[in-house]
Write a structure and sequence with these properties.
By secondary structure, this protein is an alpha/beta fold. It has helices spanning 2-12, 23-26, 68-76, 103-111, 122-135, 148-159, 184-193, 197-209, 214-227, 231-234, 254-263, 284-302, and strands spanning 31-35, 38-45, 52-56, 80-84, 141-146, 164-170, 241-246, 268-272. It contains twelve helices and eight strands.
Length: 305
């Protein structure tokens, strides 16, 4: 039941994102590089001599879902901002030939202790990110991830500590099985939008317009399910860490963020009262300030002899 609830929250989380302006991002030409036998698309914005932030989006989301305000706000704080499209989204290699998983069957296999079938893993997606850093000759960076992107960011911080100047995990989770499922209201919203071909088509069209790739979501869900509980890896993270969550997040309730912060020694946990599984306009200035202060503190430590 817990894993079925996780499927529900991942599927509907995309509809909770605020729709930020992306005019600035749409004007930036994507670069493409070979990485781990696939192609990864990315943007590198700002002065290459400045400390770098690598930003990783969530389920089925391309880099434009971050929106102009987040990216330009971080650039204005004096950072080089690197945005990438996870494999199976945006301009990166798609895995459509692999097909779509039968979700209920994969969940049943997982519950019975068998491996979930997935074309790739969160570890692969973390390695993709590091490969882009290699191409850009970025020795270490502030790793920022939202939702599934936060899970990937946690994997990077655990497996590539020398490449992680700091970690910022936004509305994400460790995947621990004891954490609370989505609310009944969140589950009901899935049923509401999924009833009828017209509603499904309209929802898909809206998601694509916002920078999501619905066809990749099932495969990326399998990557998350295959990873399972990552608590043992998360507890090894030593990078300065900021964990951000919304008090109104009914998809990944605040306990998911609290557990992440609890496992990472010395981490800071910030909860915004008006934030759900999104970044509202009223939260954005405070979030940017919190992120900047966190990164500046890590920069000071990194540059101290």
């Amino acid at each position: 039941m817990v894993r079925l609830s996780l499927f529900v929250l991942l599927f509907i989380s995309v509809s909770a994102w605020a729709q930020f302006s992306r005019e600035y991002l749409d004007k930036q030409p994507l670069r493409v590089t070979p990485a781990n036998e696939i192609s990864m698309s990315y943007l590198s914005l700002g002065d290459s001599e400045q400390p770098a932030i690598v930003m990783i989006m969530g389920l089925g989301a391309s880099h434009v879902v971050w929106g102009d305000a987040v990216v330009q706000g971080l650039q204005a704080s004096g950072y080089r901002v690197v945005l990438l499209d996870n494999r199976d989204t945006g301009g990166s290699t798609k895995f459509d030939d692999w097909g779509q998983p039968t979700v209920w069957w994969q969940l049943l296999k997982r519950q019975l202790g068998f491996d979930v079938d997935a074309p790739y893993t969160l570890n692969d997606m973390a390695a993709d990110t590091v490969a882009v850093m290699d191409v850009l000759e970025i020795n270490n960076a502030h790793i920022v991830g939202a939702s599934m992107g936060g899970m990937i960011a946690q994997v990077i911080a655990a497996q590539y500590p020398h490449r992680t100047r700091s970690l910022i995990s936004i509305m994400s989770t460790t995947g621990a099985p004891q954490l609370p499922p989505p609310s009944a209201e969140a589950s009901d919203s899935l049923l509401g939008v999924s009833t009828g071909d017209g509603a499904a088509a309209e929802r898909t069209e809206a998601m694509v317009a916002r920078g999501f790739y619905p066809q990749s979501m099932g495969r990326q869900m399998m990557a998350v399910f295959k990873a399972g509980d990552r608590s043992e890896a998360v507890v090894t993270i030593t990078a300065p860490t900021l964990v951000v969550h919304g008090a109104k997040d009914t998809l990944l309730p605040p306990a998911h963020g609290a557990h992440t912060a609890q496992l990472i020694s010395g981490s800071e946990f910030v909860v915004y009262d008006s934030m759900g599984h999104n970044i509202p306009d009223d939260v954005l200035p405070n979030l940017l300030q919190e992120m900047t202060l966190h990164m500046q503190a890590a920069d000071a430590v990194a540059t101290t002899p």
